[in-house]
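> forwarded from #structure-qc
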């Protein structure tokens, strides 16, 4: 009897081990565990398997999502041919009654400029500037929520349309444009920089990609930040901008932010992806369910990380072969930044008649 029991126990153990191995095999091969094809997509945010989507599998996915957020940066947004594909995809999602947003780290264009661009490329009118979230909008919202006196000034070290977004929300800003030290015969005179606006009259310093950044501007910004009540807001912490000329390195906002952090001894609130202000703004105003939200993007370190940090599933547009190689390397070393799905171009998930 004891021998029979022992044999039965051994058989049971082998059976369970075989069953578990079969389940692991099915997961690796992405075979549906039931007759419903959509079951293969029921993964948690931590189970990113870098699955390539097709038009058919993307359609199967749609019922699992209510909201789609496009990372409005990089080649997906700038190249004329690609943005036409984005319009087809966004319009398809809106036709399926999905909520669609654009979340960008770009300060060059205001929300109004983005809306005009959408109209020119025949995006559905439901995707208007109210659903375009820019650093300027996030900065204005944060300042208005945390500053009691709206009369105080905001020192802005950033170029482009961010100024329009701030002004639209009642922010009294100063600082954009050139502001360099005069040519001084004695370098000691740099210690007598005139700061015409008192630090007590400045409620916030915002720093992003400022083409006119100068030593004088850093002196002013660091001096204003000596006041602990002065908010310190950074657009993003990206180190460099992508450039087709591999011999040229173009610093992004993060490089400039690093200088001001060092000079002021303070840590900023970072507004852009992959940090939380953009998510919190959309969540507060539209009450999205992040578990039913997909982030569609072209950037792993920024956008995929943003989506995964906030409980979303992520779709990476990997248009360059080297990006696929990088994802393979990341499988073991950086699983927290892996996308859940990828495509090589937007048309691969669009219906044939689009």
């Amino acid at each position: 009897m004891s021998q029979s029991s022992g044999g039965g126990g051994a058989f049971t153990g082998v059976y369970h081990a075989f069953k578990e191995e079969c389940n692991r095999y099915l997961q690796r091969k992405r075979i549906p565990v039931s007759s419903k094809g959509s079951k293969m997509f029921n993964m948690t945010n931590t189970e990113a398997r870098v699955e390539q989507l097709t038009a058919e599998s993307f359609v199967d996915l749609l019922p699992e999502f209510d909201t789609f957020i496009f990372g409005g940066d990089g080649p997906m947004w700038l190249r004329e041919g690609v943005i036409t594909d984005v319009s087809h995809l966004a319009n398809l999602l809106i036709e399926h009654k999905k909520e669609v947003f654009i979340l960008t780290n770009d300060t060059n264009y205001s929300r109004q400029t983005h809306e005009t661009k959408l109209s020119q490329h025949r995006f559905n009118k439901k995707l208007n500037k109210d659903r375009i979230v820019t650093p300027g909008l996030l900065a204005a919202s944060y300042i208005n929520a945390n500053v009691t006196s709206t009369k105080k000034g905001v020192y802005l070290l950033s170029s482009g349309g961010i100024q329009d977004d701030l002004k639209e929300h009642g922010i009294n800003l100063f600082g954009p444009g050139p502001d360099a030290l005069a040519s001084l015969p004695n370098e000691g005179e740099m210690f007598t920089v005139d700061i015409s606006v008192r630090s007590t009259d400045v409620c916030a310093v915002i720093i992003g990609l400022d083409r006119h950044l100068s030593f004088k501007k850093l002196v002013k910004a660091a001096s204003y930040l000596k006041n602990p009540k002065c908010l310190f807001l950074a657009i993003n912490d990206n180190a460099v901008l992508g450039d087709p000329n591999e011999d040229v390195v173009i610093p992004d906002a993060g490089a400039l932010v690093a200088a001001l952090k060092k000079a002021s001894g303070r840590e900023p609130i970072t507004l852009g992806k992959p940090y939380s202000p953009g998510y919190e703004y959309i969540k507060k105003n539209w009450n999205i369910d992040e578990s039913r939200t997909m982030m569609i993007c072209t950037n792993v370190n920024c956008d995929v990380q943003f989506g995964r940090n906030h409980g979303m599933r992520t779709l990476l547009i990997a248009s360059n072969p080297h990006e696929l190689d990088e994802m393979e390397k990341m499988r073991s070393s950086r699983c927290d930044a892996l996308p859940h799905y990828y495509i090589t171009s937007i048309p691969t998930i669009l219906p044939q008649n689009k």
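QC bot note: Residues 290 and 311 are 6 Å apart (CA to CA). Residues 2-29 form the longest helix (28 residues).
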